[in-house]
Amino acid sequence: MADKVAPHSNGNVNEGNGHVPEIQLIIKASTIDGWRKGVCLFCQEYFMDLYLLSELKTINLKVTTVNMQKPPADFRSNFDANPPPILIDNGMTILENEEIERHIMENVPGGHNLFVQDKEVATLIENLYIKLKLMLLNKDYVSINRLLSHLRRINLHLEKKNTRFLTGDTMSCFDCELMPRLQHIRVAGKYFMDFQIPVGLRHLWRYILRMYQLDAFIQSCPSDQDIVKHYKQQQNLMLRSVSTKKHEELETPTFTTSIPLELDLQDE
Q1: What is the pLDDT of residues 8-50, one digit of tens each?
Q2: Which helix (H) or strand (E) holds 185?
Q3: What does the alpha-carbon distance between residue 121 and residue 55 come to, in Å, rounded to a whole number?
Q4: From the centroid of its chain, how far is CA 237?
Q5: Following DSSP, what letter does each residue of 98-134 receive, concatenated?
Q6: Based on CB atoms within 10 Å of each CB, which residue in 92, 167, 189, 217 is the most buried?
Q7: Non-local CB neighbours of 157 within 8 Å, separated by 6+ positions
Q8: Are 136 and 194 in contact (CB under 8 A)?
Q9: pLDDT higher for 17 or 195?
Q10: Terminal-to-terminal C-alpha distance of the chain
């Protein structure tokens, strides 16, 4: 159906538990090699949601990548022009993002625990990605300051909440939505604008560090090179002529999963 089973798939997490339902998630493959995890915020978000459930052994998760530049014939015949993410559950195919979320929440065992209701957090993380794209597009202090202001609000929320994650001490759908966007801010912001999340936002950095220690994020995260190439390919985002000379396809994949050296948060 799709190209290949990704090497990060945890399809054997529940091996031997025949009653555990298998959920298949089809995600975009890298535009660099056509096989490894590609860049798609929704793909990573649902990957993280489902990975957390597979760790709880409520589902058996199979993650498959598909090269959308050269989709295989069986993918085209089964899904027409619909791009990933695509969720398959017991023969049922869900194609739309909102429907995938609803299906995980209502039909996937344990999913209702991830999709908590928190209007404050939903509003807090809304439009963060738009502000990143505006910063990359406009390259001005106004856009930079708007992104910084948004990050400060998230930092303040984490400080006041004093919990491990956005809504409490266990992860929710909001964390699976926020962290991929923070990763894009780190990688693309640094590469194109030399933008860095201020070290003074300690509560945000502590949150990022916790996420870097979780398999759900590490296993779902695309490489730095894929993130950079994703933004290079977007219209009007060829941001620095020197950057476009770099050939990400020739590099060994790297993954930004460290925090600034001057921060010592391990024991906090």
Answers
A1: 444 433 444 457 999 999 999 999 999 999 999 999 999 999 9
A2: helix 173-193
A3: 25
A4: 20
A5: HHHHHHHHHHSTTHHHHS---HHHHHHHTTHHHHHHH
A6: 217
A7: 120, 121, 124, 166
A8: no
A9: 195
A10: 46
Alpha-carbon distance 85 to 71, whole Å? 14
- The sign of the torsion formed by the CA atoms of 138, 139, 140, 145 equals positive
The pLDDT assigned to 17 comes to: 46
Least confident of 23-37, 96-110, 251-265: 251-265
With a cut of 60, say whether residue 199 has pLDDT above it.
yes
User: What does the alpha-carbon distance between residue 40 and residue 227 come to, in Å, rounded to a whole number?
Assistant: 9
- The sheet with strand 86-89 has its strands ordered as 4-5, 60-66, 22-28, 86-89, 92-94
Sign of CA dihedral 227, 232, 235, 241: positive
| Average pLDDT of the residues in 69-87 | 89
Pairing verdict, β 86-89 and 22-28: antiparallel
Q: Which of 117, 125, 197 is nearest to 158 (CA)?
A: 125
- Residue 174 host element (H or E): helix 173-193
Give the tokens for residue 95. Answer: 């194609």
Tell me which residue has tokens 């391990």: 266
Token pair for residue 157? Answer: 């929320």
Burial class (CB in 10 A: 0-12, 13-18, 19+), 242: exposed
Read off φ and ψ for residue 4, nearest 5 degrees.
Answer: -145, 155
State the residue for tokens 């957390």. 52
pLDDT for 150 = 98
